[in-house]
Design brief:
The protein has a 6-stranded mixed beta sheet with strand order 6-7-8-3-9-10, with helices on both faces. It has a 6-stranded antiparallel beta sheet with strand order 13-12-11-14-20-21. It is built from 9 helices and 21 strands. The chain is of the alpha+beta class. α2 crosses α3. The protein has 2 domains: 235 residues, Rossmann fold (3-Layer(aba) Sandwich), CATH 3.40.50; 132 residues, OB fold (Dihydrolipoamide Acetyltransferase, E2P) (Beta Barrel), CATH 2.40.50. A hairpin with an 8-residue loop joins β12 and β13. The longest helix has 18 residues. It is elongated and about 80 Å long. It starts with a strand and ends with a strand.
Amino acid sequence: MARIVLENLSRIFQGPKGEAVLAVQNVNLTIEDREFLVLVGPSGCGKSTTLRMIAGLEAPSRGTISIDGRIVNGLEPKDRDVAMVFQNYALYPHMTVYENMAFGLKLRKYPKPEIVRRVREAAEILDITTLLDRLPKALSGGQRQRVAVGRAIVRQPKAFLFDEPLSNLDARMRVQMRLELARLHQRLGATMVYVTHDQVEAMTLGDRLAVMREGVIQQVADPIESYHHPANLFVAGFIGAPPMNFVHGTLSNALDGVLFTAEDRRNSGFRLKIPAEQATRLASILGKPVILGLRPEDVMPASHAGEAKAASVVEAQVELVEPLGSETFFHLTVAGQAFTARWGISERISVGQRLAVAFDLSRAHWFDPLSEQAMFCFPCE
């Protein structure tokens, strides 16, 4: 397969008034051989443009792209030995499934027995052997997407490029296709680059995630690292569903230890005592503005928190309840601050109810409000 290296890659478009629009900015990224890398970020962040530059569908304004040690900037898409799967399937409506999958090989004048062998093998991998004689209009959305993937598989390329291939499917089919793509990667051992705005999709599929924002890569890490040790405020808020809770405030010394005081314009902010084992590490930011970040699962009913978290208990009001079966999302307010909590508890809690909640500060994240970079997170290992 292939190792893909992007060096100082940028793409500049011309805006409606002739101004320069920087869609991708100095991307440096290495995609290892046989790796499944996911480019993830909100719409308009430059992830699809980056993928299209790898495919040769967009020309870089600056920088180089190398595939398997060879710089491919000047090569046509057909000469890069990559296969791309699009969001809209792009199947020929007048051709059968077999003909759609075989078409690219026919153009390259492969022998007929080789075409038959490759199409049959790909169909077996994707479990679409019984569909080979059907036209696309007789297929479901998931089946059409399998055909689009099969058309890429028969090419046996150095790398597979996926541009939001599951966006047109319903929720249940997306889950099924995610599993199939994960199994496909394990079976083929191929280099895959996958673009999505869905962070759940990214975390379940990727060996590593490259999180993008406004054309700039914010962090490249495996899904667990991205979730537990985000590089900055954007990654912390984007990776995770529901997203991380953020509270602006300051850290200060008090008679009984270090306190975090939440910022509140109505002067009704709350205070939390920092665990002693963290206080020493946070000494360098005492008296400075900070942002406290806590995952929804680290905000819990005080009755479930135990004595160790008694100093971080506050009173909250329930604004909205989202029951999901095995767990429930609670939208809370604490002294004017909004929080989301994820609880797997059975007792009924209703909207408008007031209850004591505890913050697990042993799992806190601390960010610089100016640079938005992560300063400390716990636990650190």
